[in-house]
């Protein structure tokens, strides 16, 4: 039969010692009988480890990016073996069809900050014939995996430092380093962590601290492969630990927020609330609320807000050692509330209010409003319009710029559609992209790519956007790429939709006393059937209804010192859910809340990555559900086969979430705080 040949990568190491001539020390081949391996880049780091990145393709493999490496043990032996096997950086989904070359180069570089990690960049295709670049961080070796966690048991003079470490199959030791600044001045003794391959929690009781002084600390792990440092964390003896709740229900002149006090710092919290203003990191010397005492979660209503302003808010807690703050959160009252039908015809040669332009190149070659004055043909649009005139910037001009619409509230509308008139006078170096967002611009989805010159001048474009139905934060953007490449002009934009079922609930928050048990009500305005549920067992709500009326919420006596909150979520067919809240004050004669230790969840607050450890080692199967304060599902997961599990909540916003863990004979529900 006919032979089949595939490209491979030959690699060589030459060494020169003193005046001796160069000599080949080792060499090898990276390849296979079924795929092509090509466009490689190789480096040796200061840890005596080799990294190699390359592209791969084959009859059943779209062009992809992979890597392999040689450990320092194999390097010391000079055995010509890449003993870190081939692994994937990116799995390709498309092939290149319109070029006779694959990129210009691939590059592997050693991280100058530690002389150990590698950075690799190479080409891939992210849609048909659309070139893109991927950058990857490569870490070789069986270094211990280390994570520093939030402190616990904070008092005016002591704290428990926490972390977790995975020995990565090699005998490993751990210790904490700390000090009032970086670099750290003190260290605990080394403790053996074993040679397992799972994360284990570790802690150290630190005493003799000074009240109100901020200490930095981190967990450090060491094994035969090397030393790894965890992330830097801080602890302030006597400080209350406070989290600021995300801002919601911005309805000028009011907005809705709150906080959570998880630790009192060794002294009772005598006052708590939120403070806000137009400057970053507002303090209690300005506007603030007073929302009770003690630890626990609480809600706050901001007032006297002005439209078209940018604001900042922080939760605070006061104990006998001082005032302590949560993270700063920014929000805005800028712009009116736009709803379908929303139109824009650019009537004057100025960017309309609440529209924005993004300059990805930083060269001021961006969207403008007015008229293109040179070119053949000129856009046949009426009056002024939005445009990018690439030709006018000359042969050295390069454009990558966005025209971004205001946020449009489509929460009461379905069958959302977008239409506009445009003319793309295309060239080989230009294209347009139309995107939409349903989360206020945090992420974008492609609606249409425009490569060819428009069929007519102008051309009318229409598209349905099903994902936007019922969403309160819809935006659109027109992105243009060009380099001396004529122009794109856009006008007569219209976002339309059909009215959906109405849903309005007031008030947003009911504050109730700890005792006696009683009932509070919320008023609902709705044009169809609805259902209601609560995330807390101590509140029972009217489960369903039809049309406008009231939702009754019966609550039990709060027997604990901590205040508590409950979220009531209402669902209407064809609409996003709506959430209102109950905050119940703490008991003045109650008992301390007993912690449920059947499951340990740490860190809390977290950066979105949490670890679950059942206290009973016989429990090796869990059902986990996580949802936000509006009742939207964040994660459902079945966990089996281990005594410890790590979960990533994904790109969720900072705020309060709830986790329910079930193990057959028991179910535990806890509150999670995410703060990055």
Plain-language structure description:
The chain has about 675 residues and is mainly β. About 0% of the residues lie in helices and about 50% in strands. Strands 12, 13, 14, 16, 17 and 18 form a six-stranded antiparallel β-sheet that branches. It is globular and about 90 Å long. The N and C termini lie far apart (about 60 Å). The model is unreliable at about 590-595 (pLDDT under 50).
Give the beta-strand count.
54
Number of helices: 1
Low-confidence regions: 590-595
Distance between the termini: 60 Å
Mean pLDDT metric: 88
User: Quaternary state, please?
Assistant: single chain
Structural class: mainly beta
From the spread of the alpha carbons, the general shape counts as: globular
Amount of beta strand:
over 45%
Helical residue percent band: under 10%
Major sheet: 6 strands, antiparallel
- As a whole number of angstroms, the C-alpha radius of gyration is 30 Å
For this entry, give a set of tags:
six-stranded antiparallel β-sheet, single chain, 676 residues, mainly beta, 54 strands
């Amino acid at each position: 039969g006919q032979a089949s040949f595939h490209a491979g990568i030959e690699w060589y190491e030459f060494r020169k010692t003193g005046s001796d001539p160069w000599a080949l020390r080792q060499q090898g081949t990276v390849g296979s009988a079924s795929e092509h391996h090509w466009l490689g880049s190789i480096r040796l780091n200061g840890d005596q480890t080799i990294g190699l990145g390359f592209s791969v393709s084959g009859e059943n493999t779209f062009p992809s990016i992979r890597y392999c490496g040689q450990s320092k043990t194999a390097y010391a032996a000079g055995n010509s073996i890449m003993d870190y096997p081939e692994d994937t950086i990116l799995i390709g989904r498309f092939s290149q069809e319109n070029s006779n070359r694959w990129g210009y180069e691939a590059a592997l570089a050693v991280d100058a900050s530690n002389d150990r990690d590698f950075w690799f960049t190479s080409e891939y295709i992210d849609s048909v014939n659309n070139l893109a670049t991927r950058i990857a961080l490569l870490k070789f070796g069986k270094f211990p995996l280390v994570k520093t966690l939030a402190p616990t048991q904070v008092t005016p003079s002591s704290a428990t430092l926490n972390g977790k470490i995975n020995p990565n199959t090699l005998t490993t030791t751990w210790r904490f380093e700390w000090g009032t600044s970086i670099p750290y001045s003190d260290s605990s003794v080394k403790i053996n962590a074993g040679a397992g391959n799972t994360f284990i929690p570790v802690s150290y009781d630190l005493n003799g601290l000074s009240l109100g002084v901020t200490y930095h600390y981190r967990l450090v792990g060491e094994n035969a492969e090397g030393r790894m440092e965890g992330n830097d964390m801080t602890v302030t003896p006597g400080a209350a630990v406070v989290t600021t709740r995300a801002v919601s229900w911005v309805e000028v002149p009011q907005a809705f927020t709150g906080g959570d006090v998880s630790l009192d710092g060794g002294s009772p919290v005598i006052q708590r609330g939120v403070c806000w203003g137009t400057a970053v990191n507002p303090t209690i010397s300005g506007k603030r609320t007073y929302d009770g005492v003690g630890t626990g979660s609480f809600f706050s209503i901001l007032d006297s807000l002005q439209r078209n302003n940018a604001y900042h808010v922080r939760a605070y807690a006061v104990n006998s050692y001082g005032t302590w703050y949560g993270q700063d959160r920014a929000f805005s009252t800028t712009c009116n509330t736009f709803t379908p039908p929303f139109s824009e015809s650019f009537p004057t040669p100025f960017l309309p209010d609440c529209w924005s332009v993004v300059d990805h190149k930083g060269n001021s070659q961006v969207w403008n409003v007015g008229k293109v004055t040179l070119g053949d043909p000129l856009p046949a649009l009426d009056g002024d319009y939005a445009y990018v005139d690439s030709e006018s910037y000359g042969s050295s001009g390069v454009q990558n710029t966005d025209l971004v619409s205001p946020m449009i509230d489509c929460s009461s509308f379905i069958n959302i559609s977008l239409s506009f008139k445009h003319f793309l006078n295309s060239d080989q170096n230009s294209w347009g992209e139309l995107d939409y967002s349903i989360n206020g611009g945090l992420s974008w989805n492609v609606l249409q790519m425009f490569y060819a010159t428009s069929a007519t001048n102008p051309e009318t474009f229409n598209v349905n956007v099903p994902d936007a139905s019922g969403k309160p934060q819809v935006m659109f953007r027109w992105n243009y790429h060009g380099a001396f490449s004529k122009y794109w002009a856009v006008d007569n934009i219209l976002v339309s939709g059909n009215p959906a079922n109405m849903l309005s609930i007031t008030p947003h928050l009911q504050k109730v006393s700890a005792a006696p048990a009683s009932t509070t009500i919320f008023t609902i305005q709705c044009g169809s059937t609805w259902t209601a549920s609560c995330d807390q067992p101590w509140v029972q709500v009217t489960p369903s209804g039809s049309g406008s009326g009231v939702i009754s919420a019966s609550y039990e006596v709060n027997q604990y010192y901590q205040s508590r909150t409950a979220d009531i979520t209402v669902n209407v067919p064809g609409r996003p859910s709506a959430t209102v809240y109950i905050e119940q004050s703490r008991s003045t004669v109650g008992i301390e809340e007993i912690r449920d230790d059947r499951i340990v969840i740490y860190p809390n607050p977290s950066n979105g990555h949490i670890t679950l450890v059942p206290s009973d080692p016989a429990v090796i199967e869990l059902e986990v559900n996580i949802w936000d304060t509006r009742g939207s599902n964040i994660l459902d997961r079945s966990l089996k086969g281990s005594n410890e599990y790590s979960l990533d909540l994904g790109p969720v916003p900072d705020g309060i979430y709830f986790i329910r863990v079930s193990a057959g004979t028991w179910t535990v529900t806890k509150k999670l705080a995410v703060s990055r």
